[in-house]
Design a protein that fits this description.
alpha+beta; Alpha-Beta Plaits; three-stranded antiparallel sheet; 3 strands
Length: 79
């Protein structure tokens, strides 16, 4: 398990749901089982189970990158 943590409240319930759906799609592509996703306004905790044929940082990197960019695009306003 790894935690994506921010120093201030940034997540809404809608954003957490969006992240969970995105993470499920990424896990399906990587053949990784997303067991559970918990979160609050300042953190997100995905629990994944996968075969050790992947390097340990690989699922964490893919989940973080493939979730962070779409969330920023979807939920931030242009200036």
């Amino acid at each position: 398990m790894f935690v994506i943590n921010y120093p201030r409240p940034v997540f809404t319930r809608e954003m957490l749901t969006f992240c969970e759906h995105t993470m499920r799609a990424v896990c399906a592509e990587l053949d990784v089982n997303l067991v559970e996703v918990n979160g609050d306004t300042n953190h997100l905790q995905p629990l994944v189970a996968y075969a050790l044929t992947l390097a340990i940082p690989t699922p964490a990197h893919h989940l973080n990158c493939r979730t962070a960019y779409p969330v920023r695009r979807e939920y931030t306003t242009s200036r």
